[in-house]
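Researcher: Can you fold this with FE2/S2 (inorganic) cluster in place?
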Amino acid sequence: MAAAQTGSQKPTDTADTVPQDAQYQTRVSKVVREAEDILSFELESADGKPLPSFSAGAHIHVHLGNGLSRQYSLCNDPVETHRYMIAVLREPDGRGGSQAMHERVAEGQMLTISGPDNHFALAGREATFSLLLAGGIGVTPMMAMIEELERAGRPYAMHYCTRSPERTAFLDRLKPRIDAGKVVLHHDGGDPSKGLDIPDTLRQFEPGMHLYACGPSGFMNAVNGSVGAWPPHAVHQEYFSAREMTEEEKAWDAKPFKVKIASTGAVFEIPANRSIVSVLQEHGIIVPTDCEEGYCGTCITHFIEGEPVHRDTVLDESDREDYVMVCCARAKSEVLVLDL
Ligand code: FES
């Protein structure tokens, strides 16, 4: 069978001049040390034309060669079209993307990117108050959000949790917001019990409030364990690592099922402990992937029939009626029909 690419991308609030998955060249116009182990990179278009527009919460994919690609949230003001700004935390134990960004990317260099895509957009005007919780480098999408919220005159509060002042990025941009009482910094010295009291912060929900949270897995677990009073539609989260699966979610690994390709009628058995994406790849059907753990959104695929077991952190309840993340999803039904 000929190799195929996914043709069922979910429409998102993204680039309006470049196809969502098209790769294009940018030039690194500035690299700045924002904090200990955090560099920001400013990118401008290689041909001098405006970059595709984006909304707060969007990310781009940076293609680092040799199949290495990583997604990074855009942290500049979304009205800007002359540049994109991303910030990268060096993670010595990571999968190599952050090390490559820190060690191999310099001012003046060309960088191939795709996107922007947005799975973490601000709610509309029905959101009368936005509560932003940022853990560490999870502050990046929030920086674009506060620019957008302020321009629209919409009220918000942001809590930014880091280990220490030295590991706190964007202090220049945040200073006026801290002085205005809109942004509060919390330093825990490495002991979360000395930082923001997340359960207390999330104890009360009022209609019209929307919560946005982004941070490392421990931080996100704490948020998830504290949103009992919040309706699901008011909770927006972006992960940059896989969340911990429940025992029930893990148990689906043991159940085999079948995937049918709608365009050809081909049916493939997905054995226990193998992903849909790996089986399809084996048969020449290439669905682009990045994290392969359900948090980046790259492998989103439209499904037509069947009952998936969603195990990602990207799709919301309404998305889940039509889309599935084929890097991590299983199926309760015997067959899952994919729009490929
Ligand atoms: S590859 Fe990242 S969500 Fe599937």
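Model: Folded with FE2/S2 (inorganic) cluster in place. DSSP finds seven helices and 18 strands in the chain.
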